[in-house]
């Protein structure tokens, strides 16, 4: 009965009805499959009589992207549910609650967040989320600090590294973020209008060196349990609530990779402002909001992370101020570098972003793509020299001048 | 029958007699327990009639150091035997052959190397080993390259990281090498004569920062399958043969830690020359031999590692010359830093070295200890700025001027 097979809606309902404490055994339930069908089935199960609802998320044994299909481990459902449970223990209000995980079915039963919207969509609609910076800074500070050698027992951390070895999902990142965009790979989707800029990237050896260095960090620096795919499509949001979802790519990696992912996706929207039909002033205002959010996230993250470190650091050797200064500077540099990598791959790599791709005006879309490449490559090239988050902001500001 | 219990000599003989292809079932065997009894039982089993012999090494469930005893995982026998088998596949002549490993007994049956001597002893006796540099350079180049993201499938490497998670043994290193020597810890054995120099180390914040940075690398940089304890007591040697033994501390860590361990132990002998009863010229000659060996090891290692990389590198992104230059410079810096850490802990930490401790002349012993601390701390402080192996040699040369 619990041998793996992809659920039908009827099976999803039957399964949900058996969940104790959620629904009565005879309850009337409805199901709607709301996944995109590329990686997972996502059943929205609700009980109209009470208004109660939950999500059943089931991993599929393959991935479909642009028509291609390849096998993909079901173990990612375990990684995702176990990561969510650790994250919930650290910041309960910032991730969906997991009611149950069933290994054999690669199935996770979790809190329904239908009252939230995907943040990427919210940003495309021009919304502002004044609490987002403090929410995501708290998420990053707590999940990165408390899963690292700074904030947890260092022997238990090694067992966590083992628990979250995630070769197949890491491979996707290693190829699609750190390799394919920098060569003429089959997986790329190069927009014809910007082919010249993309070819410049393929031939830029200075850039390739910096990307190789960042990829080395991704391959070897087991610093903290990362979300691993923290773009604005992995964030559910509404005015007073932020929920980080979908940590299938979780593994022990460099902290800057998660922080950089957030900044990159805010900057991709910043670039996409070229094409949204607002007047100049509205565009400048929204860009100011996006950059202000980045600055606020870094500042709050930095403050909270160091405060956790001072109060709850487990390691005498790492408690000195000079070491913390060194560590935070290195983290800033990683963050800026990974932010750049996360931008570039979204312009001409396999998986692109709606912020830019939805633009109707072709000339504006081209400007947005060039802008994203310019900011992304500048961040990558500058990353090892960075001293302050203001340098990231300056790169973005100079690029639209 | 195979439930864990410490073997008697009779049991060791009975076990050996059952090994197929080694001894006949009715063979006359003798056993001699030659371990130091602190961590492992080591039975030397021989058949006088044929001259055949083997080693049975059995891990004990505790460690004894200076009278203290604490529990220690038997899993280290698995780590050791699996590491030896990987190393043998990469450089068959440089490690003992493993005939069998039996998990439940924490028992490894391996090649007898009684015709070799422990290298530390050989150096103390003033011997020279002209083939050592090329042997150990080949060992380092092959074991580090082929277990890293440079030389093996990067997804399989992640499974290897998992296989060699080694929390208990790493904890010993994290404490005894990177923590205790830099504070007034109970585990230290501070020689009274050099207490002033040791206290200077306890108060040197610049030094502490560099040690914390190196410890961070040990905790998080999963670059290659290290031996993890590669001092001259872990090397069996004779004129034409070098065998690296005892990789119980193996885990995925920074490559420079293994290379640095070799250099540190040659430099400890260099410092100990203060007290060996040779004339000035003989002392200077032997020191020249030791430094020449370090230079030759680095040069051969560097050449062989890069040559393997160019020929057998698995990773397009990491094949560029500028990246390889960056990587090798970083590796040199790590090597110099870890060499310094490995020296300092051997002067006033828990586990010291016979090279210095056997010195009879108290004044000479004190000079040797001060010299080792001076070289070690200079290497640590300089490590992030190093450009060439000559800087390590200069630090050693200046220290005896």
TrEMBL record, chains A, B:
Checking Gene3D superfamilies in the record gives: 3.90.1200.10, Phosphorylase Kinase, domain 1
List GO BP terms, alphabetically.
L-methionine salvage from methylthioadenosine
Q: Where does substrate bind?
A: 229, 345
Q: Which UniProt keywords apply?
A: Amino-acid biosynthesis, ATP-binding, Kinase, Methionine biosynthesis, Nucleotide-binding, Transferase
Give its E.C. classification number.
Answer: 2.7.1.100
Please give the superkingdom of this protein's source: Bacteria
Which amino acids does the record list as binding ATP?
40, 57, 246-248
> What's an example of a GO molecular-function annotation for this chain?
ATP binding
Show the Pfam families listed in the entry: APH (PF01636)
Classification via InterPro entries: Aminoglycoside_PTrfase (IPR002575), Kinase-like_dom_sf (IPR011009), Methylthioribose_kinase (IPR009212)
Please list the residue ranges annotated as the Aminoglycoside phosphotransferase domain.
32-269
User: What is the main EC category here?
Assistant: transferase
Catalytic activity, per the record? 5-(methylsulfanyl)-D-ribose + ATP = 5-(methylsulfanyl)-alpha-D-ribose 1-phosphate + ADP + H(+)
Pathway assigned in UniProt: Amino-acid biosynthesis; L-methionine biosynthesis via salvage pathway; S-methyl-5-thio-alpha-D-ribose 1-phosphate from S-methyl-5'-thioadenosine (hydrolase route): step 2/2
Known function: Catalyzes the phosphorylation of methylthioribose into methylthioribose-1-phosphate.
Q: Family assignment?
A: Belongs to the methylthioribose kinase family.
What quaternary structure, including any partners, is listed in this protein's UniProt entry? Homodimer.
Please name the HAMAP family in this protein's record.
Answer: Salvage_MtnK (MF_01683)
The name of this protein is Methylthioribose kinase
The opening ranks of the lineage are: Bacteria, Bacillati, Bacillota, Bacilli, Bacillales
